[in-house]
């Protein structure tokens, strides 16, 4: 029996978007014919030819090595089809802990990530696969199906599928090492990996292992992120009003000003608080990119039990660690006194005018003898250190074989689990702060209390005071479990004049469960933690999914094939089953030309957190208030709807630079639905030249979405449905403090565009050359936030929910080889991004178009059998374009502040 698996593909074929192989699963052919069948991503039918009705991008490990790419996330981010809010390890402020992919710009929950064609367990509460958990040493190629695939793979494949393919039947032993550092002397990357395998006439075994230890950088060490006052970049001042200098109100002081104390030895000598000069530069204490460490092991093997049956298994283990820092915590007793999440906080001392104060008149350090409120950042803590541990374990085993030498079958079982533990930085407790600011603290009424001296500049708070108000650092533990059993069979049904009518049919049973555990400090917004959001525990029911699918490949004519597929899915916790069909066509009117097209429907089941989580709150720093668009002090709006609110200019500015968004789960959510259409052509006018052009369109409805901006607009417009959903300070006459913005099936999207690929290989006297161009034109990205609102086209803009959506994205890669020498140059282009109209104070907020260049050279040393390479990423040390809208100076899901980066590495095979 011929158990050989086919890997040898021409460089041109591998680079093409349309006709690339996805995985080389054993398909048992007749011995005498020796036909090798290959399974194409988006299909479970083995084919003798590399063809698909859907556009597929294939990136090989060789291409990635030549680009200096060493992880799956970085490999995907350079593809033009990946855009929007893609989380990565170069995002700022310590918050990002997993790496994701957002195909076509819609949320990562709409992109299905597979490993060798099988599902992977998610790591966070939304069930997103952490791309850093995929062992890169084992990766042979990455394949991106840029079409809906619910008919083949089920839920989550609305935008498409990312399929990571590992080596099969690998023989040998390989060790590689890499070191890199930025031109600033930070952002070091240290990576070591090995790949080993052997095979016999009965089976094979492969082991891949890698470890990395990568450093981030501090925001203060980059020109564009060193200061919250962005006036030197053309922006505004986003400094925080919660500073190491106490900001006082009440205490019998003039209410037209807020006050501070500059001399700790003379706390009654107050001076007006000047936000322009005293605002806190929190960027001096925050990470620009996180430190991260990974250790991954991947083992695969197979053994031929009989001539017609093969046992196979995959085992993988991943241990990841991420650490970043944010600014020290603080408190504002006036802000909490009006906050809906802490309704009883800092209200002990009301006055005759209806004001609530949090500092007692007789508090030990109160020099005024009158109650008041204080805003104070506890910089004595130092930066808050956020740490995340992520462990993932996967066990997969199965049998596959052939019946009658024509019908391939496979049965597999997989058990997977992931645990993501997030630990927040040092945090003070509101309850303890209340005690420490009370009249009773350090008196006979509360002798164990330690009074807090907030009347003074940095240094006035002692270690003993911090120890008293401190609480355990918040901990959130996310556990995901996935088990599935799947079986399928494929082969010919009947012989037609143009070829065999092929089928594939299968069943799948899956169990998903989420367990989200949070400590008391995280359960109510800032109740025990003085700065941050809240989360509630989730123990979801076991979600049982039963699915059945059928796929047909119909050769109508010698040059015309039709693909038909449908999948039925039933979810135990959603009162709705769904059936999703797909139709595809491949037509070749000329030897040099192929036409293709597909239509399919898709769905995405709501995540278990979206359905079962209780009330949550999050701190929002992307402020939006039509009654004070610039968040200016003493601002008075002339808009009739704002005037009708009776807003007080004295309370118009949100000096804290944040508000609270209330959300939570909704058990009545339904699946999101989509319709996908693709049309394309493939032209090969001459040898070694291929051109592909594909049109794509996605119409998505019943989208689970929450829009705080929409809630604010509706509240301001007087919509009674949203009457109580926006809470303003000062009894409704000040800045926005809280927005109720729950998720529901309320949104829709319409997006479309074109993908273009060109690949050309040629030989010269001075070496062999390969040129590959890949580009995407996003012609439309219409978003409807709710069913009763108008569509808005956000193509070419920055949107808080979707990130940056360039109209044009492209990259070009040129490879040269000659003997033992090689070189690669590539360039990545993003068109300009519009983020806001011009105002009296600022020019229009536009991120300019950019081109970033990278290069690598390599040499194989025959004498010692070692491959050496060195490269530079961001060759010209180009700064990202400036973005004012989100306060981080750019969109760091699209760009990085790392700067020029040097790396070198070696690879030794034995």
UniProtKB/TrEMBL annotation:
Places the protein is found: Cell outer membrane
Keywords for this protein: Cell outer membrane, Membrane, Receptor, Signal, TonB box, Transmembrane, Transmembrane beta strand, Transport
The TonB-dependent receptor-like beta-barrel domain, residue ranges: 334-875
SUPFAM superfamilies for the chain: Porins
TonB-dependent receptor plug domain residues: 51-161
Entries under Gene3D superfamilies matching the protein: TonB-dependent receptor, beta-barrel domain (2.40.170.20), TonB-dependent receptor, plug domain (2.170.130.10)
Signal peptide span: 1-29
Keyword field contains NAD: no
One Pfam family it belongs to: TonB_dep_Rec_b-barrel
GO CC annotation terms, alphabetical: cell outer membrane
Family note: Belongs to the TonB-dependent receptor family.
Protein name, UniProt field: TonB-dependent receptor
